[in-house]
Amino acid sequence: MGTSRLNHHWSAALKSEAMSIIREGVAAAARPVMLYSIGKDSSVLLHLAREAFWPAPLPMPLLHVDTTWKFREMIAFRDRVAAEADIEMVVHTNRQGVDDGVTPFTHGSAHYTEVMKTVALRQALDAGRYDMIFVGARRDEEKSRAKERVFSLRDAAHQWDPRAQRPELWDLYNARLNPGESLRVSPLSNWSETDIWRYIAQEEIPIVPLYYAAARPVVERRGQLIMVDDERMPLELGETPAQRHVRFRTLGCYPLTAAVESDADSLEAVIAETLAADHSEREGRLIDHDGEASMELKKRDGYF
Amino acid sequence: MSRGAGSRKDVASKDGAKFPSTLRFVLCGGVDDGKSTLIGRILYECRQVFADQVRAVEEDSRRYGTQGDAPDLALLLDGLRDERRQGITIDVAYRSFETARRRFIVADAPGHEQYTRNMATGTSTADLAVVMADARKGILPQTGRHTRIAAMFGVHHFVLAVNKMDLVQWDRDAFESIDAAYRTMAKEIGVSRVVSAPVSALTGDNLRRRSPHTPWYAGPTLLEHLETVEVGRPAVQRPFRMPVQYVNRPDPDFRGYCGRIATGEVVTGDRVRIEPAGTVAEVESILARRAARDGAARGDSVTLTLRPEVDVIRGDVIAAAGDPLEAADQLRARVLWMGDEPMAAGRSYRMRLHTHEVDAWVTRIRHRVDVSDGSELAAERLELNDLGVVNLATRRPVPFAPFAQSRALGGFILIDRLTNATVGAGTIMFSLMRAANLKWRDFSVTRDKRAEMKRQRARCLWLTGLSASGKSTLADLLERRLASEGRHTYLLDGDNVRHGLNRDLGFTETDRVENIRRVSEVARLMVDAGLVVIVSFISPFQSERDFARGLFKPGDFMEIFVDAPIEVCARRDPKGLYAKARRGEIRNFTGVDSAYERPERPDLRLDTEKLSPEECVDLVMRALGSGHG
Questions:
Q1: Cα separations in angstroms, B551 against B521, B600, B623
Q2: Smallest CA–CA distance from A26 into chain B, residue
Q3: Is B595 in CB contact (< 8 Å) with chain A?
Q4: Per mean pLDDT, which range of A163-167, B339-343, B596-600, B617-621 is the poorest?
Q5: Would the CB atoms of A194 and B98 count as touching at under 8 Å?
Q6: Residues within 8 A of A (CB atoms), B 412-441 only
Q7: Which of A117-131, B85-99, B569-583 has the highest mean pLDDT?
Q8: Interface probe, candidates A15, A161, A172, chain B, greatest B C-beta count within 10 A
Q9: What pLDDT band is residue A298 in, cutting at 50, 70 and 90?
Q10: SS3 B611
Q11: Helix H segments across A133-174?
Q12: Can you tell me the distance from the alpha carbon of B428 to that of B416, in angstroms, rounded to the nearest whole number?
């Protein structure tokens, strides 16, 4: 063969790599599932998975761990996705935690995250007996993630042992499992935050409107802008919610997710702002700052 | 915080919505060569470090830093808690960063000798390797090791970063002699594309910013080179090949073949050949969710439909019909061993080659390679982090291309059958012609025909167990019982076979593996001849028993575990072997100083402590049941 017979070289390598990882995981899985956080990375992951198996419907359910403290707009978005024809959405909440009255305000972010996210996730994974768990994690998000494999082995207790990782060469993923073990698969490992935004723009992927700047009621608490999303948020002495033009770079539980002041109300503006940003997106996640190496500890315990 | 030399804004101004090209490179160097500092510095200079991350590093630096009051930029990369404590990088870390011209993914590979496997991991996905040398120390054995491994795993472009130039007063002669020594070594390894740069990771000289200290250096800064070096292989330089990852069958009317194109390109209407079956079809369509496309090329993940419908499964390769792919079951390969247990010839492993999985075993270790100087050494086994050249056999012919032609079709991993750990990584050099020319011939008088003439079903009854567990007694009794019922049998006994066929083999692990292999093959020939074959062999390893089983059709092989506790066997000890082994007069004696792996799922377990030999044989005869006659 001499020169190319193609008019255009389509697709970004990142997209093809992610599709290939998703197909590998599903081909090796007995019970695959995709963790669905409602965030932008989940939206991209879902889009890629649909692309990978089209014209067949998505060959796995989505699993959302609902802490009951997500932004209302997130839940509305999730319910719209769940209503789509090819989607089976499994929603799990740690009922024990709810009954025990565990909230981010009463128990502190570390304990709350443990009960309502980490334990809840373990409960949901055990109940579904899932062996291949697709997640939207990126290596650029956080230092300990930079070392995690694309196919990351968890033992029967969902624990991650950074010293017992399988070497991962080329794109040959060893997805063989002993009884009780599972794999967390990260098709977006090599994507950056900017890549996510570029892809959302290119493919016109729907995302939760909270990512765009708008006037929202917020209070300033210990240097962070916290949105007062519903009446459950206890206001501290002297706090009055004020309308400010803000958006979110990352989404989670509203009491634990700080907003940034912004005028970026379009995709183009968000991309420009991301490229010019001075702070990492995870800075808005209050749980990362619980202590040095806190994310790694949570991961060893099974938090994703 | 002081601002780095560049600005993230100049990235934004360059049409931020478009995906820039990506360069993947691996950074190799010893423990103190300053790899993490180099990457930390580049990220910092490219404004890829966020203010909060720098603040975190400043905090960490006060606790673990090695740079006094200055922020220790290496801490930006050393992500895991343990290594922060020890001050060393223990695993591969991947970082992305972006400049106005390019997007980068860098694998930070550790410098320890014992972590060769991480280095290989980081290298396997890289287009280019940056090898670090300390200006004060020059080229070290590890420099050769890193370059050799990177070359083996498919890297063609090398950059030698001569670091810590500030500590040798930016001495031109020091740099040039290191550069010359490296080029000589690289040439020996077969690497021709080398660029060297004198740098200081600590100060940032000649990383992004041209150094005022090196007016004598005319080459590019490290980053300039990385931004402009051309590593892409043209998409169309090789014929079309796509390993099938997944067969998409949502309903009986649709069958799509999913995969990532390994080499070449495809357009609708192309004629393709399915390997290894050899069937030919035409590409009917190339699907994408939004619109069908008329073509796709190397690196693209696609779904193809074929006309007419042919049988295709995961692990097959769809290839250009006019340029078919090779398939072989005897291969020459380089292997890097990554398992804690050494690799021995004859042990069977799961081999993963593109999307194809097959049982494979090493038939011969040709030599071990000393990765520091490339010399070839005799070896009976490959230990952790050893690199060797081996002959490899696979149970079925596998479709492949030599690694030098295609990383995607010639790179493989070996997986331990028991633990599922990835224990080896290899690259196929070529097929051993033997396999290509010797074809298994099917003759007209078949195994079933021969067995039918004897009015029996041919099978292999494999008795495994410790020495003195009762195998020989049972085998003898069983054969007598079968003979009395008019069956044609043959008994292969471990000790007897060692007097003849396997006289040349000793009792090392390697020899014992070969011992089993030969006996399995002989048993297979005898079953083919229509006999009921009883094998009485200690056969201590599950992988070897699985290997034997794999030679037979399902149901033709019965793994019978002759079970007695080791204390009972040692008490029986008819040949006095346990006593000798305990006195150290016999080495590698199973159960004493060599392991016996109990069968995980034997077809039958005979408890010779509780049951009499007659009762055991009754159980076997019952298990043979109606299928026996």
A1: 8, 19, 21
A2: B246
A3: no
A4: A163-167
A5: yes
A6: 412-413, 415, 419-422, 425
A7: A117-131
A8: A172
A9: low
A10: coil
A11: none
A12: 19
Phi, psi values for residue A125, rounded to 5°: -70, -40
Query: Does residue A108 fall inside a structural domain?
Result: yes
B60 contacts in chain A (CB < 8 Å): 292
HEC per residue, A244-257: EEEECCCCCEHHHE
A233 plus A162 within the same structural domain: no
Q: What is the pLDDT of residues A75-133, one digit of tens each?
A: 999 999 999 999 999 999 999 999 999 999 888 889 999 999 999 999 999 999 999 99
Judged by CB atoms closer than 8 Å, whether chains meet at B94 and A190 is answered as yes
**B539 catalytic residue (yes or no):** yes
Of residues A53, A202, A275, nearest to B8 (C-beta): A275
More confident residue, B582 or A289: B582
Does the model's pTM come out above 0.80?
A: no
Phi then psi dihedrals of residue B509, to 5 deg: -60, -45
pLDDT at B429 over 50: yes
A251, part of any domain: yes
Nearest to A139 among B81, B94, B338 (CB): B94
- Which of B531, B366, B348 is closest to B450 using CA atoms? B531
Taking each helix axis from N to C end, the angle separating B141-152 and B172-189, rounded to the nearest 10 degrees, works out to: 40
Asked whether the beta carbons of B165 and B205 are under 8 A apart, the reply is: yes
Distance CA A223, CA A225 (A): 7
Looking at B348, B539, B543, B594, which residue is catalytic? B539
- Over residues B375-412, the pLDDT tens digits come to 899 998 999 889 999 999 998 899 999 998 889 999 99
Q: Do A155 and A254 belong to one domain? A: no
A-facing residues of B in 71-130 (CB < 8 A) are 76-82, 84, 90-96, 98, 103, 105, 117-118, 120-121, 124-125
Instruction: Give, to the nearest 10 degrees, the angle between helix B509-528 and helix B542-550.
Output: 30
Question: Mean pLDDT of all residues in chain A?
Answer: 87
The Cα–Cα gap between A105 and A110 comes to: 11
- Contact: A6, B295; criterion CB under 8 Å: yes
Q: What is the C-alpha end-to-end distance of chain B, expressed in Å?
A: 86
Residue-range definition of the domain harbouring residue A242: 209-289
DSSP track, B235-267: TTSS--EEE--EEE-SSTT--EEEEE--BSEEE
pLDDT value of residue B302 = 93
User: A55 and B250 in contact by Cβ < 8 A?
Assistant: yes
Helix, strand, or coil (residue B548): helix
Q: Are A29 and A121 within one domain?
A: yes
User: With the C-alpha atoms ordered B321, B322, B326, B327, is the resulting torsion angle positive or negative?
Assistant: positive
Computed from CA positions of residues B392, B396, B402, B403, in that sequence, does the dihedral angle turn out positive or negative?
Answer: negative
Produce one character per residue of B63-84: b if its CB has 16 or more CB atoms within 10 Å, e if not.
ebbeeeeebbbbbbbbbbbebb
Please count the other Cβ atoms lying within 10 Å of the Cβ belonging to residue A222: 8
Domains and CATH numbers, chain B: 9-228 (3.40.50.300), 241-320 (2.40.30.10), 326-434 (2.40.30.10), 447-628 (3.40.50.300)
Q: Provide the 10 A C-beta neighbour count for residue B234.
A: 11
Record: contact A26-B258, CB cut-off 8 A:
no
Asked if residue A111 belongs to a domain, the reply is yes
What pLDDT sits at residue A295? 57
In which residue are the tokens 């007695």 written?
Answer: B564
